[in-house]
From TrEMBL:
<dbReference type="InterPro" id="IPR050126">
    <property type="entry name" value="Ap4A_hydrolase"/>
</dbReference>
<comment type="similarity">
    <text>Belongs to the metallophosphoesterase superfamily. YfcE family.</text>
</comment>
<dbReference type="InterPro" id="IPR029052">
    <property type="entry name" value="Metallo-depent_PP-like"/>
</dbReference>
<dbReference type="GO" id="GO:0016791">
    <property type="term" value="F:phosphatase activity"/>
</dbReference>
<dbReference type="GO" id="GO:0005737">
    <property type="term" value="C:cytoplasm"/>
</dbReference>
<feature type="domain" description="Calcineurin-like phosphoesterase">
    <location>
        <begin position="1"/>
        <end position="207"/>
    </location>
</feature>
<dbReference type="InterPro" id="IPR011152">
    <property type="entry name" value="Pesterase_MJ0912"/>
</dbReference>
<dbReference type="InterPro" id="IPR024654">
    <property type="entry name" value="Calcineurin-like_PHP_lpxH"/>
</dbReference>
<dbReference type="Pfam" id="PF12850">
    <property type="entry name" value="Metallophos_2"/>
</dbReference>
<protein>
    <submittedName>
        <fullName>Metallophosphoesterase family protein</fullName>
    </submittedName>
</protein>
Amino acid sequence: MRYAVLSDVHGNLEALEAVLRDTRRGRLDACLCLGDTVGYGPDPNECAARIRALGGPVIAGNHDLAAAGVLDPSAFTPLARAAIEWTRDVLTQETRAWLATLPPRLDDPAFLAVHGSPRDPIEEYILDLPTSLAIFSDHAFSLCLVGHSHVPGAFILQADGAVSARRLPVGRGVRLARAARYIVNVGSVGQPRDGDPRASYLVLDTTARTITLRRLEYAVAATQEKMAARGLPTPLAERLAVGR
Ligand code: ZN
């Protein structure tokens, strides 16, 4: 089975369409979405409709639940909160109802999928080795797929207990060793934060046991113009050009 694993679309339709064109060329079997389909960007309803139409599993992110009124966004940064308030106002009843019912995790025989982390699926960031080690210790998965930080990469636990972090090469498959365990962040479609403004997603081949990071250019200026026209905070538009 070959999956496109997408996360953190954040209402960025231009980035999502670039990714979906790439997934069609790759003839993948299914699309898995790790949450935060809305928030920050100018097209939340359109992005939600595109993701729903793919028919694959979709799980909840913190912005999805905040936009749906299920999660209190008082812990969000002021800019994120401003964007969530705008998003709440423009969501259709249909999109809001869909977001409110998204599950927090997906347990597949081949992987565990969450937005943040297995111990706090909605809100925890896995950013460092000690956090990854605690999660490897407390949860029984061989591969955990996450988003949330918008920074693609992998934490790897070897059979001897050594844990390491690594960046993923773009466009080149990495084989998953049977003896090791992995936490893989697929990056963000609509708001990358690793210094590379290109949209990010992951191809997971559960038969060949490979992961391949893909990065796609898209019309950043078109998204920025929409954000300005809709009155979304300027820094949120500016960051798209630099991937921060
Ligand atoms: Zn996000």
